[in-house]
Design goal:
It is a single chain. By secondary structure, the protein is α/β, with parallel strands linked by helices. It has an eight-stranded mixed β-sheet with strand order 4-1-9-10-11-12-13-14, with helices on both faces. Strands 3-2-7-8 form a four-stranded mixed β-sheet. α1 crosses α9 and α9 runs antiparallel to α10.
Length: about 300
């Protein structure tokens, strides 16, 4: 059984590439979805990871099942639906960074319910991970997320939660109380400086850590993009500097951070060593296009940490 179980919506990704000499638009097909990316990143670092979701009984769903098999992510708890599709998204790039366009309304994952959450599968894990996106994709899915978090706590499974805020899915007025409730169920919270500023009007990362720790988590990671991250517990905090890399595509970098962090925690690292490792993994992920393909493996991460 997996040590890390992630829950959410996997998606098929179409990532727009720089135009070639023929000036035609080219799209790189791949895979995405924040919690699926997290599970794959953890598996690439050596963790035993599994996934809970629903996908369509369609070719895109078949593609995701092949992906998890290839990546060593257990998909035995994945539901296949004949009456709902697998979600899609498109990534474009500009001076503003990467931007997303989604085709996920009515997707199989958005129709998940609390009754479909596999209690025994979660109970056998050491860490359960989910995100605000998983809450936002549908009313039933939101209830399923909180139910799964409660089941994890019931069975003594640590809960990791990512505040991944997507205002196209829900307005901040709805997102804020839902995210705060989830933070109160979590042992580890991943957020970012930009998300925290939007959610709570906090521009200073130390203030973000203070706010989230008051809700009960034992660790908070505030991601700062290319500037690094802040790792904080009630007893200690550490600012982790960013790595200077030739970043091409930040899609999935935060998910890579989360997966690498959780893998290293399962391997025995403390919060701060795990965060330093995850920060390097996230930097390396940005070196190529796509959410999954560039996720690094331990050799490359260790090399970056050594400065080689």
């Amino acid at each position: 059984m997996p040590d890390l179980v992630c829950l959410g919506e996997p998606m098929i990704e179409f990532n727009r590439q720089p135009a070639g000499p023929d000036r035609r638009v080219h799209w790189l097909e791949g895979h995405g979805g924040d919690t699926s990316n997290c599970a794959i990143a953890a598996a690439r670092q050596g963790a035993r990871a599994g996934y809970v979701t629903a996908i369509g009984a369609d070719p895109f769903g078949d593609s995701l099942m092949r992906l998890w098999t290839e990546e060593g992510v257990d998909a035995s708890a994945v539901i296949r639906r004949a009456d709902a599709p697998t979600g899609l998204y498109f990534v474009t790039h500009s001076a503003r960074g990467h931007e997303f366009t989604f085709a996920r309304a009515g997707s199989a994952a958005s129709r998940m319910t609390a009754a479909e959450i596999p209690e025994a599968y979660i109970a056998a894990a050491k860490i359960f991970e989910t995100s605000a996106i998983s809450q936002a994709i549908g009313a039933g899915a939101g209830e399923a997320v909180l139910h799964a978090m409660a089941l994890a706590k019931k069975h003594g499974v640590a809960v990791a939660y990512d505040t991944n805020l997507r205002l196209r899915l829900w307005p901040v007025e709805r997102a804020r109380p839902a995210i705060e409730e989830a933070c109160r169920h979590a042992d580890v919270v991943f957020t970012s400086d930009e998300e925290a500023n939007t959610l709570w009007g906090l521009a200073e990362v130390g203030a973000v850590a203070d706010q989230v720790l008051r809700w009960g988590p034992s660790a908070v990671i505030v991601k700062r993009g290319g500037e690094g991250a802040l790792a904080a517990t009630p007893q200690r905090r550490s600012s982790i500097p960013g790595h200077r890399v030739n970043a091409l595509d930040a899609t999935g970098a935060g998910d890579t951070f989360a997966g690498a962090f959780l893998a290293r925690r399962l391997a025995g690292d403390d919060v701060f060593d795990a965060a330093r490792y995850a920060n390097a993994a996230a930097a390396l992920k940005t070196l190529d296009y796509g959410a999954v393909r560039p996720i690094p493996r331990p050799g490359a991460v260790r090399a970056l940490l050594r400065g080689t």
